[in-house]
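User: Hey, my collaborator sent me this sequence without any context and asked if I could get a structure. I don't really work with proteins. Can you help?
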Amino acid sequence: MTPQARVQAAIEILDLVIAAARGNGPPADRIIVDWFRTRRFAGSSDRRAVRELAYRAIRSCGEVPHSGRAAMLTCAKDDAALAALFDGSPHAPEPIASGERYARPGTAPAWLEKLLAASEIEGDLLGRAPLDIRVNALKAERDTIELPVTGEPTASPHGLRLPFGTQVEQWDTWKSGLVEVQDTASQLVCEAVGARPGELIIDLCAGAGGKTLALAAAMENRGTLLACDTDRGRLSRLPPRAERAGAAIIETLLLNPGREAEALSAHAGKADAVLIDAPCSGSGTWRRNPEGRWRLTPRELERVRGLQARLLDLAAGLVKPGGRLVYATCSLLDGEGADQVAAFLSRDERFRADGLPFAAGLPRGSGYRMTPYRDGTDGFFVARLACM
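Assistant: No problem. I've predicted the 3D structure and written it out in structure-token form, which is a compact way to encode the shape of the chain:
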């Protein structure tokens, strides 16, 4: 493909990404894969270049652009070399017209930027994310494991940071369960649980089980670890991951939305710790999923905030006196973090904030908040609450 054709390809992909963002369609990654599946003429370097162009445009535009061309023009506005590729040659985009409409640059849609500012978020949220792994303590130690690529230790006691693009899942060490791909912030959330051997711990929103596996390692495969979720597809991915990791204490429980307390009634008041990795806006993961900020709406944010409050109340009924409730969201918004916890503490006097020591982030309300621009991690809020 010529450089001009690559730009035109990125514009066509962006049109599809924009339509998907407006209509709750597939994510950008899947759209790009599907687009190239029917275009065998594109080589690996073409695919890589087009992908880079598309994501550059996605990251550049705050509001949802009205077209893929407008998004790409925002990148070209301050890039003369890119602008020159709009030359109207075969397979190229048409020349840029005088007064042509550009997309609005920015971090996010205007309503979200106001919430970020109110939450004192002021740095870059859209840069390329690093690749972190967790060394599985059930099988190896960070200081002695031998890997094909040398990693830099992170703030997590089991974490290593690798060069971007490292193909970890091709390694024998990954296939044999010695390492898992997991962002450092996510690893530190698991550390906040303080899981110990012999305990009963409930991972209330386990998903595919990344944090569940870290908890199993902390428990040294002794005790009971219950992984729950309402998403059958995601939860079904946990058992094969647990087998590979050698995590033998994990039990899974598929929950019926709205009837979670009924399914968990046998564990009421018995858990040593409950982890809530709550559904959220995902504003802390925009580096990995930048079009996610185009999909979020005020109505959806209000919905997830209501769900977070309900999960906190549900989890509170599972924790025994002296136990811990750990609440985390991959969000940077106070409404999903510090404010959510403050509201919970005001309505349930059995719990108090537990001043946990934390290896990253800054105090925020009753917890800690990690940010991409300060900590080099995904954005996360985490608070540990003690049951009196």
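In plain terms: The chain has 16 helices and 13 strands. You can pass these tokens on to your collaborator as they are.
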